[in-house]
């Protein structure tokens, strides 16, 4: 096979994360910049390049040497993307998203992956590190990677979904823990955790729902890159992603139900406290009236000249308080 890139392609490309020459048997050879520039795949071999699209050198290389139409390159380099699949330049232009499992990152801050695949070449472009690509590289290093470009896409999609599934399982576990804790301990800190779960579920669904449509389009696309078996695997991946979207909807609804239960418990606790304060106020209201009446500074206060006056007043107030409490108890007011 002739060389992939024309003479003059740069030997060193700033922003080339890595490149592999796949042997069509599940393995491959990792290439350096000079090897990529002079790459001449043999029959059955094909090239995969992963690039950082934010680098000016990569952007210039894509326009000059990628052999793709300008509109295709612009689509691959655009700042914001949503999952989709279109036919472009005798190949497929695919935009996918993977969960962000980098240290210190939020999983719902999903990583964009742009892919163009055609005869003899696959370009993937990204900005942030994607662990699913590391998984794919490990498979290729062990010789159990993709044997063709269709295999490459099917494996990559399933690796992306594997990590999405783990995040959704973790989301479900958090909801389960909150459901149990609401029955025993109700606190304001749980409301923040529930809000975080609902926000994460909504954000994940925002990108996974269109990704499901992209996989449906891929499964229906009649391309020479895909065999009937690939179409079957892509349909299975689409069904799997549909279940993930349904699980996210269920997790969000469960979080809403837990939130309602939590608010109900907090409201009940507040009402109970207010009720106790009301009972105390009802007991002390007549006592306050008596002390206020006896405390006026005029003559003729009963018992003012008696040495037992204070004792009798206190005793009467205690009897009044006990009587009120007994009345409330008899009326089952507490």
UniProtKB/TrEMBL annotation:
GO terms for molecular function: cobalt ion binding; cobalt ion transmembrane transporter activity; magnesium ion binding; magnesium ion transmembrane transporter activity. Keywords: Cell inner membrane, Cell membrane, Ion transport, Membrane, Transmembrane, Transmembrane helix, Transport, Zinc. Pfam families: CorA (PF01544). It is found in: Cell membrane. It is a multi-pass membrane protein. The chain crosses the membrane at residues 274-296, 308-328. The keyword Transport applies. GO terms for cellular component: plasma membrane. InterPro entries: CorA_cytoplasmic_dom, CorA_TM1_TM2, MgTranspt_CorA/ZnTranspt_ZntB. Belongs to the CorA metal ion transporter (MIT) (TC 1.A.35) family. This is Zinc transporter ZntB. It comes from Sedimenticola thiotaurini.
């Amino acid at each position: 096979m002739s060389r992939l890139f024309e003479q003059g392609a740069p030997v060193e490309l700033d922003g080339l994360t890595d490149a592999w020459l796949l042997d069509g048997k599940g393995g491959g050879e990792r290439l350096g910049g000079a090897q990529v520039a002079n790459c001449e795949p043999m029959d059955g071999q094909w090239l995969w390049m992963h690039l950082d699209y934010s680098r000016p050198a990569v952007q210039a290389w894509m326009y000059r040497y990628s052999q793709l139409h300008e509109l295709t390159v612009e689509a691959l380099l655009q700042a914001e993307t949503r999952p989709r699949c279109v036919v472009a330049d005798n190949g497929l232009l695919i935009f996918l998203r993977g969960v962000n499992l980098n240290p210190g990152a939020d999983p719902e801050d999903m990583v964009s992956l742009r892919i163009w695949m055609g005869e003899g070449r696959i370009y993937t472009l990204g900005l942030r590190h994607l662990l699913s690509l590391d998984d794919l590289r490990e498979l290729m290093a062990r010789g159990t990677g993709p044997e063709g470009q269709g295999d490459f896409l099917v494996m990559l999609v399933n690796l992306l979904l594997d990590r999405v599934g783990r995040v959704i399982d973790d989301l479900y576990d958090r909801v389960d823990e909150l459901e149990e804790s609401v029955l025993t301990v109700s606190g304001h800190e749980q409301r923040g955790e529930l809000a975080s779960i609902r926000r994460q579920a909504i954000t994940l669904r925002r990108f996974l729902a269109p990704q499901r449509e992209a996989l449906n389009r891929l499964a229906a696309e009649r391309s020479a890159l895909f065999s009937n078996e690939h179409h079957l695997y892509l349909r299975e991946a689409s069904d799997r992603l549909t279940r993930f979207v349904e699980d996210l909807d269920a997790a969000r609804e469960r979080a809403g139900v837990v939130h309602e239960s939590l608010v109900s418990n907090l409201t009940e606790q507040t009402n109970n406290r207010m009720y106790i304060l009301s009972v105390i106020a009802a007991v002390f209201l007549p006592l306050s009236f008596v002390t206020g009446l006896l405390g006026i500074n005029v003559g003729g206060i009963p018992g003012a000249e008696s040495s037992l006056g204070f004792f009798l007043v206190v005793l009467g107030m205690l009897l009044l308080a006990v009587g009120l409490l007994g009345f409330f108890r008899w009326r089952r007011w507490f």
